[in-house]
Amino acid sequence: MLHSHLTTLNAVSLILKVFQEEHNDASSLLAGSGIGPADLGHADARITTQQELQVCANAVARREEIGLELGRRMHVSCYGMLGYALLSSATLGDALRLALRFPALLGTVFSLRLIEDGQRVWLSASDYADSPALASFNAEFCLVSLKTICEDLLGQPLPLLAARFAQPAPAYHGLYAETFDCPLGFAARDNAFAFERRWLDTLLPLADPITHKAMSERCRQLNLEFTGRQAWLGRIRQLLLQQLDAAPGLEGLARQMNCSSRTLRRHLQLLGSSYQQILDSLRFERAKQLLAEDQMPIYRIAETLGFSETASFRHAFQRWSGVAPSHFRG
């Protein structure tokens, strides 16, 4: 089962904005994510990475190269408190090392590292463990957004020495030149770009030690908050995954979590979610897996996911994905 952590609505809002600017219908991009238009109005709302990835999958289905454009638009100001902490850092190296301390605040699905290689440094994104279909999108979005952050911090372009990607070269790899003006490699061991080591020591134009100290502390506290919420989310998902065929309900889940239903409901509200939203998300993930395997009849899939009637499952899947289960199986 794919992992799921907490993140902000920043990337989702950006995706909707890009398609709205192109005068395309953006509402269908939320299909299957459990995110509603009302959620977008809450600045402090939290969603899971699986919800975010569902919106990304909907976007990639329309434009497979969208990750490159999104990365160019994901400026340092999109990262809230972390953005302020990075901007007020003394040097680029200080800022990058701080960002790598708080991957949850970056919202990344990769493990990020700075790898020193003589007079150059690689900013590496590895250990991808999410949807294989979104591997190229996530690698492009990650590396381009990291380059955008570096250039926002420096106030000038960051000349790259090389860039590499774990995926094979896509059909649109010619578009990479718009961002990566350097030699490119594909089918590599990780996703990374390299620049001269001296840039790490470059003083940042907006450095401010007092602001930096205050914002770094806020980031530390926010990261603890994210981590605590993720622990609750992980336990909730684990328990529900074990009983999708007979979901316990909010009261039953609370008993399994050794807390009151009121406490569980409060934690779910802090997660920006609800019992039903998480259950639907897990059912949708499992339904897609079972439909892709093309072995189990649809009525059996409905039973496996806890639906008493096949028609109820069909209706729910149509609501989650926008298509009927039979059409999804194709």
TrEMBL record:
Domain HTH araC/xylS-type, residue spans: 234-330
Keyword Transcription regulation applies: yes
GO molecular function per UniProt: DNA-binding transcription factor activity; transcription cis-regulatory region binding
Keyword annotations of the record: DNA-binding, Transcription, Transcription regulation
Keyword field contains Glycoprotein: no
Pfam family for this entry, one: HTH_18
Record's GO cellular component terms: cytosol
Designated name of the protein: AraC family transcriptional regulator
Species the sequence originates in: Pseudomonas putida (Arthrobacter siderocapsulatus)
